[in-house]
Design a protein that fits this description.
By secondary structure, this protein is mainly alpha-helical. The protein has 16 helices and 5 strands. The strands form 2 sheets. It has a 3-stranded antiparallel beta sheet with strand order 1-2-3, covered by helices on one side. α8 crosses α11 and α12 crosses α16.
């Protein structure tokens, strides 16, 4: 069963799942409207059935949406994006892969459309159906290529991990403002203003049903916190505060700045300066050895360095210092395919350190 989804994150806030596309090998396509249906539980047993493989392309976000919103579980999964990475494809877009492997041209992209608007146009219906219509055949072609390359088991293991990956609710982060680019350069007073502005933007976005970036860009929030404008004239001199922004939200922005200015010193946020954990010298040497090995091995095997050995795993392996393949394979995220195929080389790199 081929699967894709469309959302409306570019047009509404919070995002809604706006369309679910399904297709089967015979060429039948269904477009399911989750905005019109209160319940999608009828689809749950399809994806949970071990005999049915769900085929997606770059399906991380689709899986998160369906797992989090509807509690879907996926017994068997094949992601054509993952498969293409294991084949060393230089371009991984679905349109490129369909042209390369099936000689198929997709209709023009409509990813920026508001998929929650109804009725959907004929062009939208055609685009949505085309996204899943060829996926099962593309899966077959990629499986043949992977089998010939001896890498089918690699892709299957990675897809199984993707299917099993749990999805938890993301609580609102009260310190999200501090993660904005440029926030670290602000004074505690500037951070207090930024926090007020960030909270204001969230409220305005929810009230207007618009993504936060369409209210105020993140860099504009930081500039406002730096400039701390006290009136509309000063507000107009802040890059990003257009006449339209000032007309709609100028007073609210100035009020937020004033609240930040009025905060007592003991109520101002303080940037967390987390000391870097001390890394033993032997672990640092292992990290460098693994990076050197990855730089040499990635082109030799025709794999992206980040797929062959992601930076996150380099740190985990270097810290653990496994002595053999079994220990290597037992480390979180390493996977059997890495340990079995590249384990000897990776262990040799560790030993050299």
């Amino acid at each position: 069963m081929a699967l894709d989804t469309e959302g409306d994150s570019l047009h509404h806030y919070p995002e809604r799942l706006s369309l679910v596309q399904l297709a089967v090998p015979g060429g039948e396509v269904w477009l399911v409207d989750p905005l019109a249906l209160d319940d999608l539980s009828a689809l749950v047993p399809i994806f949970a059935e071990p005999g049915i493989t769900t085929v997606l392309h770059a399906g991380d976000n689709d899986l998160v949406q369906l797992k989090r919103r509807y509690g879907f579980q996926f017994a068997s999964l094949f992601d054509t994006y993952v498969a293409a990475r294991f084949l060393g494809e230089p371009a991984l877009g679905l349109d490129v892969l369909l042209t390369r492997y099936l000689g198929v041209q997709l209709p023009p992209s409509r990813q920026r459309d508001d998929w929650s608007a109804r009725p959907l146009s004929e062009a939208q219906l055609h685009y949505a159906a085309a996204d899943v219509f060829h996926l099962v055949e593309l899966k077959r072609r990629l499986e043949d290529e992977l089998r010939s390359a001896g890498r089918l088991a690699w892709a299957e293991e990675e897809c199984a991990a993707l299917a099993a990956q749990p999805v938890s609710e993301r609580p609102a982060d009260p310190n999200a403002f501090a993660a904005l680019r440029g926030a670290r350069d602000l004074s505690p007073r500037g951070l207090g203003i930024l926090r007020e502005l960030h909270d204001l933007r969230e409220r305005l976005a929810l009230a207007a049903d618009r993504p936060p970036f369409k209210i105020l860009q993140a860099e504009t929030l930081v500039r406002l916190a730096q400039a701390a404008p006290a009136d509309r004239d000063a507000l107009g001199r802040v890059p990003g505060c257009t006449a339209r922004v000032i007309a709609r939200w100028g007073d609210a922005i100035l009020d937020a700045v004033a609240r930040g200015q009025a905060l007592p010193d003991d109520a101002l946020p303080r940037p967390e300066r987390r000391p870097r954990p001390r890394v033993p010298a032997v672990a640092r040497r292992r990290v460098e050895a693994l990076r050197r090995w990855r730089t040499e091995a990635a082109p030799r095997f025709g794999l992206e360095p980040g797929l062959l050995l992601p930076n996150r795993l380099i740190g985990i392996i270097a810290e653990a210092g496994p002595a053999d393949r079994d220990e290597l394979a037992s480390l979180e995220g390493v996977r059997r395919w890495r340990a079995q195929t590249f384990g000897a080389e990776m262990l040799a790199a560790l030993a050299s350190a």
